[in-house]
Design brief:
Length: 275
């Protein structure tokens, strides 16, 4: 129930015994308080390669091991911190250096098949592998394969509407993600928040232009739903698009306006069918 204010104390011993005292100050902690911590992978120029969000309790010492990344070497492959109730300080950084012969590419806002999310050509390319389905699209290595589907979270500041996102997904041979059951819902939620560390993500469910009737934008039957209690509430008057939102109950859906989040970007899920 306590944590030391400092982990190491040193003194120079004196021949006056009463001066030879080391005092370690402990602070009480609430071991039942759950807090988030973030694991950030960066290259040595400061570019973010990946983020992962996890949870623990205040006062817990957590140890994380760096992920192996193709084309990169990590400077320190194991780190630990003691979690505090100040979540902004609960961050572990792994710093990577690009191998001379490697071709590592940052994750996050990546191009797919040579296109940026706004449809322009990408001169940099992206770390991808070849999809088994969904036309001839190239799938980023951070995509999720689940069942006979592939999912990827596009994080961008250049797509400013749900309908632009829908068109972008279709230009890749896919569609905005459709969620059919609890298992798929759980897998996608964990992918967005735990694997990638994003704070929200839209998928292909909307009631835009229908007077309140929700439907999947690819024409799939709307049978499964997993709304947060009290949702959808259209609180701001233009919340016509379904999303996962980290501030609400895990695995549940909220309605949103497809606006940029606190990081200045928007995240949406594209899905491909594997053959």
């Amino acid at each position: 129930g306590y944590t030391a204010r400092t982990n190491a104390v040193s003194i120079v011993l004196s021949d006056v015994e009463e001066d030879n005292t080391v005092t370690i100050v402990y602070e009480a902690v609430d071991n039942d308080k759950t807090v988030a911590y973030t694991i950030v992978s960066e290259d040595n120029s400061g570019i973010t390669l990946a983020k992962r969000a996890r949870h623990g309790v205040v006062g817990q010492r957590v140890t994380e091991v760096a992920e192996q990344r193709d084309g990169y070497s990590v400077e320190e492959d194991r780190q630990n911190i003691v979690l505090s109730d100040n979540e902004s300080s609960n961050v572990i950084y792994f710093i990577y250096s690009k191998d001379e012969t490697g071709s590592g590419t940052p994750t996050g806002e990546q191009s797919i098949n040579g296109k940026e999310p706004d449809g322009t050509e990408d001169p940099k390319g992206a770390e991808t592998d070849q999809a088994d389905g969904g036309g001839n699209s190239e799938i980023p290595s951070t995509a999720l394969r689940y069942g006979n589907h592939i999912y990827y979270a596009v994080n961008t500041d250049t797509v400013l509407s749900f309908w632009q996102a829908k068109s972008y997904c279709e230009s890749l041979g896919g569609y905005m993600a459709v969620i059919n059951d609890d298992d798929e819902n759980t897998a996608l939620y964990n992918y967005v928040f735990d694997t990638l560390g994003y704070q929200s993500a839209y998928f292909g469910l909307t009631n835009d232009g229908t007077g309140g009737k929700w439907y999947w934008s690819d024409g799939s039957d709307y049978e499964y739903e997993n709304w947060l209690d009290g949702q959808p509430d259209n609180l701001n008057g233009d919340e016509h698009y379904a999303l996962f939102y980290y501030k609400d109950t895990p695995y549940k859906w909220n309605d949103g306006d497809f606006g940029l989040d606190d990081s200045g970007t928007v995240t949406f899920l594209v899905e491909w069918d594997e053959e």
